[in-house]
Amino acid sequence: MEAYPMASPPPPPHPLPLIQHFNHSEAHHDGNQSFLSSNSVFLIVISLLVVVIIVVGFLVLMIFCRVKSRKHSNISSCNSSFRKGSFDRSLTPVCSTNGNGSSYSPEVRSCIYGGKLGCQLQVKQRRGQVFTYKELELATNGFSESNVIGNGGFGVVFRGNLSDGAVAAIKLLHKEGKQGERDFRTEVDILSRLHSSYLVGLLGYCADQHHRLLVFEYMPNGSLQHHLHPSAKNPNNKSLDWRTRLRIALDCAQALEFLHEHTAPAVIHRDFKCSNILLDHNCRAKVSDFGMAKIGSDKINGQVLTRVLGTTGYVAPEYASTGKLTTKSDVYSYGVVLLELLTGRVPVDPTRPPGEHVLVSWALPRLTNREKVEEMVDPALSGQFSKKELIQVAAIAAVCVQAEADYRPLMTDVVQSLVPLIKNNVGASPATPSRVEVSVVS
Ligand SMILES: Nc1ncnc2c1ncn2[C@@H]1O[C@H](COP(=O)(O)OP(=O)(O)OP(=O)(O)O)[C@@H](O)[C@H]1O
Ligand SMILES: [Mg+2]
């Protein structure tokens, strides 16, 4: 009996018949197939060609757009800065300069300040607006006499109301020539890169044709000079008290500490003095005027050899005699300001009796003399301080104005010495808010 059909499973279907079938059908339509094949190949080639053409076209278009935008980027980013009024500059210089800003078109000129410090200082935050002359003319009521708040070596300072409602101090440069242009650039370069609550903020600038203006945050209490040394032209009958003076001393020390030790390379202010210390509504101090500032070198104590610039009475002796500038030159100037806060005297006063003309020479021997130190204090401060505090402040001033630069302290040391004095004085009168630096350049 043949069990085969039942017992053994049916053999698995052989793939061959299918192939055979396929082959059969292929064979069956052979002539047709070869026709379709060449048709398909033709179609595939055509579609491939179309795709390639589209891709290549797209790439060419992209490259074209890129090149075009790159060509304009130097100008358009500056253009947009100019129009939108933002300092959106790259760290590396995007605009070449021939050293003479006035030869640029207004658009290009708006970014002539992108170069010098770009590689040296790192930017954490940028702010600032580019104003047209017209805008600032409008803000100051046509630069009217009634808006004038000061007059310095740079030019006239006006109070202005900006279109967004902010009040600003607007400096109109009157210095012609290279030096004025250099100061202007330096100020814009440095202040647009360094942001600290201890520095007067640069809101923007104007480099419209030959006009050069700087727009600063407005400091309602004016300069320390005005408070310490009022003049007949600029009277002020309310003397600053001891606690406020200490606070100002600490604010200034922190400003210089920021420049010298929190900035790489260090920035040397070079014109640190009472008229460049401005006071806000709480009489908290901020440092201004960076037109003469110098970027320190990374080599040998950050020393740079430069032309001697500064204000008589504030310039460190070694800088005055050799032109070698270091952060210690600022420390000396700081010591002079501390002496002014302590004594109420100006750095150089030819109207005083012989031996008292130069504040540092007169003060130095008294600063470290426990008996004489009280005699030198501003009479307006009598009864407001303890002898211990006075001796401490006098010791700080004495070490800052040392003739030998190496003996002068770092600003960090000055800050550390002043902080406990401020803490002791906090309860003396209503506390003003403490400040935090908003951005640090490392
Ligand atoms: N941001 C500001 N807010 C309020 N007042 C200001 C501001 N900037 C300057 N001033 C006022 O304008 C005056 C003149 O300032 P400016 O810096 O032009 O000259 P200076 O500091 O007196 O002298 P120098 O040119 O030697 O620096 C200051 O003393 C101050 O009273
Ligand atoms: Mg000034």
TrEMBL record:
GO molecular function (one): protein serine/threonine kinase activity
SUPFAM superfamilies (alphabetical): Protein kinase-like (PK-like) (SSF56112)
Record domain Protein kinase: where: 143-422
PROSITE patterns in the record: PROTEIN_KINASE_ATP, PROTEIN_KINASE_DOM, PROTEIN_KINASE_ST
Binding, ATP: 171
Transmembrane segments: 41-64
Annotated keywords: ATP-binding, Kinase, Membrane, Nucleotide-binding, Serine/threonine-protein kinase, Transferase, Transmembrane, Transmembrane helix
Gene3D superfamilies with a match to the protein in the record: Phosphorylase Kinase, domain 1 (3.30.200.20), Transferase(Phosphotransferase) domain 1 (1.10.510.10)
InterPro entries, per database record: Kinase-like_dom_sf, Prot_kinase_dom, Protein_kinase_ATP_BS, Ser-Thr/Tyr_kinase_cat_dom, Ser/Thr_kinase_AS
Pfam families per record: PK_Tyr_Ser-Thr
UniProt superkingdom: Eukaryota
Family note: Belongs to the protein kinase superfamily.
Protein name per UniProt: Serine/threonine-protein kinase CDL1-like
Organism taxonomic ancestry: Eukaryota, Viridiplantae, Streptophyta, Embryophyta, Tracheophyta
